[in-house]
Design brief:
single chain; 257 residues; alpha/beta; 8 strands; globular; binds phosphoenolpyruvate
């Protein structure tokens, strides 16, 4: 990961058929040649696309987009129907994984720190960079328990405190902002960044190497520029499903370092 660039991650979630995904990926690749930007783009398509995109690596050994997986299994291999391992992902040019996304925590009951730790360990062992997602619900926010909640969610990371360069990026994604059109004030995002660093370095004693801080939740081509002034990158859901919008978000990084 290049810290002089803004990380712009596209989470496609459970969207796009094979031809639609290939088309969108190619539009992003083509668009990137034309727009000035200072971004390190990462696409997180579904597993289906990851398998299908190997053709890209045959023709373009270093494409200007990195490939990410939206999930990974807790085990290295074996009898885990429906799962995909870190080792398998690594063999398919995957560089990044998402761990702890709010939708997995909510819909698949993955708000479980021991399971999240197993995934983190798999990612670490296979040298996959991890975008570790955390964020509070509206209920927690209203009851002013956001920091306590984040501290609990971040707890699996304390097990990495003997790793000098853990290859972790933090994505703060308030659940109430995902897919709703609502976003926190940028001051609030900055404050959360400071608080998360305190939790990681002072409470969980993670080594000091800089952990990039991303914001996610209703980022679009209109608000990206403002938010980017305060963060190292963005995790983008619905606006990443439209080439035009996503390219505008990438272009918003132009004068940002
Ligand atoms: C997400 O789910 O990671 C996300 C940021 O979604 P959206 O941009 O649609 O709010």
């Amino acid at each position: 990961m290049n810290l002089k660039k803004k990380i712009i991650a596209a989470n496609w979630k459970m969207n796009k058929t094979l031809p639609e995904g290939e088309k969108l990926r190619n539009q992003v690749l083509e668009g990137l040649k034309k727009i000035p930007h200072n971004a390190e783009p990462i696409l997180f398509p579904s597993f289906l696309h990851i398998g299908n995109w190997q053709n890209l690596y045959n023709t373009t050994p270093n494409p200007p987009i990195a490939l990410g997986a939206q999930n990974l299994g807790t085990e290295p291999n074996g009898a885990r129907t429906g799962e995909i391992s870190a080792h398998m992902l690594k063999s398919a040019h995957v560089e990044y994984v998402l761990i702890g996304h709010a939708e997995r925590r909510t819909f698949y009951h993955e708000d479980n720190n021991s399971l999240i730790l197993q995934k983190l360990q798999q990612a670490q062992q296979h040298n996959l960079k991890t975008i570790f997602c955390c964020g509070e619900s509206l209920e927690i926010r209203k009851s002013k328990k956001t920091l306590e909640h984040l501290q609990k969610q971040l707890e699996p990371l304390k097990n990495l405190n003997n790793i000098h360069n853990p290859n972790i990026l933090i994505a703060y994604e308030p659940v109430w902002a995902i897919g709703t059109g609502l976003i926190p004030d940028v001051k609030e995002i900055q404050n959360i960044n400071t608080q998360i660093r305190k939790i990681l370095h002072e409470i969980y004693l993670l080594p000091k190497p800089y952990l990039p801080f991303l914001y996610g939740g209703s980022v679009n081509e209109k608000n990206a520029q403002d938010i980017l002034t305060h963060v190292d990158g963005l995790l983008v859901g619905s606006s990443s499903l439209h080439a035009e919008k996503f390219l505008q978000i990438l272009a918003a990084t132009q004068h940002k370092t």
